[in-house]
Amino acid sequence: MYPVLFRIGNIPIETYYVIWFTALALALRWTVARMPFYDIDDDEGRRVIGWGFLGMLFGARAMELVRNFSLYWSEPLLIFDLSRGGLSERGAILGAIIVTFIMCWRGGKVSFLRLCEVVILPAFLALAIGRWGCFFAGCCVGIQSTFLLALRFPYDAPSIARHATQIYYSLSAGAILLLLFFVEKWFFRRGTGQYPPSPVLTPLGLIFYALMRLVLDPMRQGYSGMSTLNITLAILIPLMAVWFLFSLNTFRKKITAHGS
């Protein structure tokens, strides 16, 4: 059971979900505000983002069900009990990508890659805030450690301290957000107020996200070596690096042409 922040009648409102949904709401609002800078039609952009948001929520819950399939198979009604399982970060990302891609492909009015550039910063904002929900819930906890910043969680013995992996994830996501923010400002200034012709924030953000997970996941309780996700992320890094370098070269040619 997650800590209860407050109650509405007999309905408990848990800290985990309050923080995560607040984080997602802020990210959604910022995404909508960023669309004009990338020349995305407001109505069409809102429609795609709205469906992507639903895909994110569905994916986050669906991945949690997959990870604990035997539990939900034996007790199907637990699917509707959010206090017995949370939201999966990787499921949320996968669900949002799939639904958004389908909506962009079918509608044909919004560029999927340009929309990724819009969303990437708010996505890291959501991670930076939302991981505090994991911290207060005591989930996604780290392994035992004598590290200076290790913390003792209420359900552990006084002698046991653990890596505060939730806070590590949050601070790392915040640092990546700041980096991408300044990179975006630099490109807009060099591009005379225009976005780069090929995505730069998306591959750069994915590189740092992959590095974050590869570095921090081994500190997390239950880690049992390279999972399918970690292997995928490791493969993703060089691919995203090539994409980023290609985008840099395309941007350089644009600036050169503009200067001439």
Could you explain the architecture of this structure?
With 260 residues, this protein is mainly alpha-helical. The protein has a domain of 149 residues. A two-stranded antiparallel ribbon has the order 1-2. A hairpin with a 2-residue loop joins strand 1 and strand 2. Helix 1 packs antiparallel against helix 5 and helix 5 runs antiparallel to helix 6. It is globular, with a radius of gyration of 20 Å. 32% of the residues are buried.
Summed up:
With 260 residues, the protein is mainly α. The chain has 8 helices and 2 strands. A two-stranded antiparallel ribbon has the order 1-2.
State the share of residues found in helices, binned by percent.
55-70%
Could you tell me how far the N terminus lies from the C terminus, measured between alpha carbons in angstroms?
A: 64 Å
| Strand content range | under 5%
The number of strands is 2
Mind summarizing the main beta sheet? 2 strands, antiparallel
Q: What spatial form do the alpha-carbon principal axes imply?
A: globular
Low-pLDDT segments, ≥5 res: none
Q: Sketch the topology as an H/E string, one letter per element.
A: EEHHHHHHHH
Biggest sheet strand order reads: 1-2
Radius of gyration: 20 Å
Tally of helical segments: 8
Which structural category fits the helices and strands? mainly alpha
Mean pLDDT equals 84
Give the key terms.
single chain; mainly alpha
Outline the fold blueprint.
Blueprint: E1 4-8, E2 11-14, H1 15-34, H2 42-67, H3 69-74, H4 89-107, H5 112-137, H6 165-190, H7 201-216, H8 228-259
Antiparallel strand pairs: 1-2
Helix pairs in contact: 1-5, 2-4, 5-6, 6-7, 7-8
